[in-house]
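Encode chain A's predicted structure.
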Amino acid sequence: MRSILGQHNLENKKIILRLDLNVPLIDGIITDTTRIDKIVQTIKFLLEQNSKIIILSHVGRPKGKIVEELSLKPIGEELEKKLNEKVKLIKDNIYKIDKNFIEGFNEKILLLENIRYYPEEENNDEKFAEHLASLGDIYVNDAFSCSHRAHASVCEISKFLPSFSGLQLDLEIEALKKITSNITKPVTCIIGGSKISTKINVIKNLISKFDNIIIVGGMANNIIEYQGNNIGKSIKEENVNSIVNEIISLSKKENCKIIYPEDVVVSNNLNGLPKIKELSEINSDEMILDMGPKTIKKISEIIDITKTILWNGPAGYFENPDFANGSIEIAKKIIENNKENKIYSVAGGGDTVSLLNSLNAVEDFNFVSTAGGAFLEYLEGKELPGIKALN
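Encoded structure for chain A:
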């Protein structure tokens, strides 16, 4: 994989830049700009090289149809503000656009309208990709979070142009390599989420590499119940005892410790009064919404002896401050060790990023990934189509 960073022939070149600008929009207002913030560096680098930039991106799932609410217009406006540079949104039909059309604009940054307005994009259509490629001289993929998708502007386009990785994609791969292949041990994974079945392949892949896997959130409820405890009305996944058994057996074989809550915070509903309980004390009308102080202390002690940490998934129902303490204490402990250069920290996943944003703590981790599916598939050990295309 070749990075755009090492290229010296970018002067006056037209760069087709694939970005993931799929930010949350409510009534045309962007509610989280993290994905935009992260790619500003790549655009500034290309502007310094005196390149002309043609941005391809998408928002939402228009399913091959024009959906006005999913226009990239507000994203173009946000980019203008962050770059202090005019961004021209081109709404014309992509098949009517050619190199001469592109030459007709004085703006250095052109933003083509939502690439998923065309069904050919998600079908990884070769002719569509060839047409996209005909608009530029060089292709750059800086959309790691889309790189698990075999789509035309991510995969097929690389057949028709010299293709490179962008600065943000480089950072993502470098961070993921540090927690999967170039690891400084001891290494710990804190993994949460509601469904253990969606993360089973990640856990299985990491057990052989990691010293500790700490299972939190809804996933932990299945393990707590598997160990013979009543979990009341807690969120859980049905019919996963065989998965839990597989995780525990494999961890013993690979000498990886599996840690789950020893005490919990429960309530009768999501907005009820929090109560700290031992696992044996949970009533049938209660639900587990966070981990308790004993568990927090144990996890903090593990973080203290950890050199590399991966965090994917909050520890409880953090949207309610009464049940956010476990997640906040994990964040604080990682940040404390990070500031003393004792640990290399990577966090990823939508809820984890939301939590860190709410604490203004994104900059306090070595790397925070906004990629969801691509992040998890990489951790599963899968080869991502978009990365394969760059190789």
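DSSP finds 14 helices and 17 strands in the chain.
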